[in-house]
Design brief:
Blueprint lengths: L1 H4 L8 H29 L1 H4 L3 H36 L11 H19 L1 H21 L12 E4 L9 H16 L4 E8 L14 E7 L11 H11 L9 E2 L1 H11 L5 E7 L2 H15 L5 E6 L5 E8 L1 H6 L4 H13 L1 E8 L2 E7 L9 H5 L2 E3 L5 E3 L4 E8 L5 E2 L2 E10 L4 H15 L8 E6 H31 L2 H25 L13 H4 L2
Length: about 525
């Protein structure tokens, strides 16, 4: 039996075996070196991304680059040593493996047919490429795919002059309506700002977090968008503008762009009234565009203020000063600090002011008593004019300019196409703005444009570096050029699967140059 196995086996000398291993490792190391350069170069666009997209994709790029560098070092240093220890004895042919034989039976006839019918093969690939190009072009553009967080954030906005009692009533009504939907598990809402200095939400802004039940408990055939549409139709309250988003993406948008919706049109200028006028015109122009939801203009006017103008002639007649009248107003409305109480490590100021019944309306304020030296107490209206005026509820500024914002979300349509249609409509309406006024698009669209600009700048450099690497690998411009030609044909499979999968073109779905090496 031993003689049978040793019939075709010829043991080569150790020096010859080591020489073969050395030549093989040198041959492989060249390809490994240039393939590592190509793969790391393909991540250059990712390394140059900034903002939200950079923080998301930088760990992936750095991790894979470090892995490829370590892998290249191990192939040159450790792999030859391991081969010299373990690659000994009898080696079987590739055809001895049944898996290889099965794949060769499928692969070899196809290759022979393609080589025999070369023109037909090229024609089929060109036709497939021509078909995939319009499919890819018809796909929408998005910054990143909308991730399902499993919950909904309902952000309605009321009128700026809403009272505390009214906003409390609206909040309770909304929570009751939301809880009536069978798919809703829990509802928690708040109005105004939280107990933190970083939250500048006015009392007119409501935030309601809606936790949904597991999808297995939903009504059959219902999606998350269907639930949002159903809730939106039930929550049509006069004076309230609805807004729908998700908790995490909402915070990301507010921190990165200052916009709490997907897209915002910022109107910069010098006068609040003019900014409000242009913002309303933009809202009217955007109304009705497919995909635009929750359209809303940030209120610039409509806030209520109590103006108290001191009559200097009258206070002179009564022997009073401006400080005397201001002290009464401060004590009655704002409160005067009397002392500070210390409780453990906490300190609290003790303020005193008039009771609610003495300051809850204009007439009560007019009857506030101002003490004089000669004439006794007199009503405040005798020395001051008191009236309610309108003004900005909140003054927003950016880059040393006043700013107004038109906000909207994008649903049931891709971001890029929706904003492009909106821009075309605004360009027709607002042909020329006055001097000192201009528009700026913000939100997720701002991230999309920034990342696309970065990719368009760096991609030619990436392809040039890859071409040079291939030239040094093959020592032939012809071979390098033919390898780069395969890049457009890589769009065939990617474009078709993205199209039939029903998703849009996003930053992470851009064609990757590292596919070039896989096509060699």
């Amino acid at each position: 039996m031993k003689k049978i196995f040793q019939t075709n086996y010829v043991r080569i000398p150790e020096e010859v075996r080591m020489s073969i291993i050395e030549r093989s490792c040198k041959q492989v190391s060249r390809g490994v070196f240039f393939s590592t350069i190509i793969i790391i170069t393909s991540f250059l666009p990712v390394f140059l991304l900034t903002g939200q997209e950079g923080k998301l994709f930088h760990p992936l790029a750095y991790t894979k680059s470090f892995i490829m560098i370590v892998d290249a070092i191990l192939v040159i240093t450790l792999a030859p040593v391991l081969i010299s220890f373990f690659m000994k004895g009898r080696f079987r042919q590739e055809s001895a493996n049944p898996i290889n034989r099965g794949l060769e039976r499928i692969y070899e006839p196809i290759i022979r047919a393609c080589i025999r019918w070369r023109k037909t093969t090229i024609a089929i690939n060109v036709i497939a490429l021509l078909i995939s190009i319009p499919l890819v072009m018809s796909l929408g553009r998005e910054f990143m795919p909308p991730l399902d967080e499993g919950s909904i954030l309902f952000m309605p906005v009321t009128l700026p002059d809403v009272s505390n009692s009214e906003v409390k009533r609206i909040l309770q009504v909304q929570d009751k309506i939301i809880k009536s939907v069978p798919e809703v598990e829990n509802v928690l809402g708040k109005a105004g700002r939280a107990n933190t200095a970083t939250d500048n939400s006015p009392i007119s802004m409501i935030e309601t977090i809606i936790l949904l039940k597991p999808k297995s408990e939903w009504r059959r055939g219902l999606s998350k968008n269907d639930i949002i549409n159903e809730l939106n139709s039930k929550l049509q309250i006069p004076g309230v503008t609805n807004g729908w988003t998700q908790p995490i993406i909402n915070r990301i948008n507010m921190l990165s762009t200052g916009i709490r919706t997907d897209v915002g049109v910022k109107v910069y200028g010098q006068n609040l009234d003019s900014i409000n006028y242009f913002a309303q015109q933009i809202k009217n122009a955007l109304n009705g565009i497919n995909g635009i939801k929750d359209l809303y203009v940030e209120p610039i006017t409509g806030g209520k203020y109590i103006d108290i103008n001191i009559k200097r002639e009258e206070i002179g007649r009564y022997g009073l000063s401006v400080d005397d009248v201001n002290t009464v107003i401060e004590t009655a409305l704002g409160g005067m600090r009397l002392t500070t109480t210390v409780e453990g490590r906490q300190r609290f100021s003790v303020n005193a002011r008039f009771g609610q019944d003495f300051r809850n309306n204009i007439e009560a304020l007019k009857r506030l008593q101002v003490q004089t030296m000669k004439f006794g107490p007199i009503p405040l209206e005798a020395v001051a004019g008191i009236k309610i005026t309108e003004g900005p509820p909140m003054i927003n500024s950016e880059n040393a300019l006043l700013r107004g914002t038109v906000l909207f979300n994008v649903r049931e349509r891709d971001l890029g196409t929706t904003v492009k249609e909106a821009q075309e409509r605004l360009d027709k309406m607002l042909v020329k703005l006055p001097k000192g006024y201009f528009l700026e698009w913000s939100g997720q669209y701002e991230n999309l444009i920034r990342s696309e600009r970065t990719l368009k700048t760096i991609l030619p450099v990436v392809f040039l570096i890859i071409f040079i690497s291939m030239y040094f690998a093959f020592h032939s411009v012809r071979e390098a050029f033919f390898s780069l030609i395969t890049i457009p044909f890589a769009l065939i499979g990617g474009g078709l699967i993205v199209y039939f999968w029903g998703v849009k073109k996003e930053i992470q779905k851009k064609p990757s140059p590292k596919k070039i090496w896989k096509n060699l």
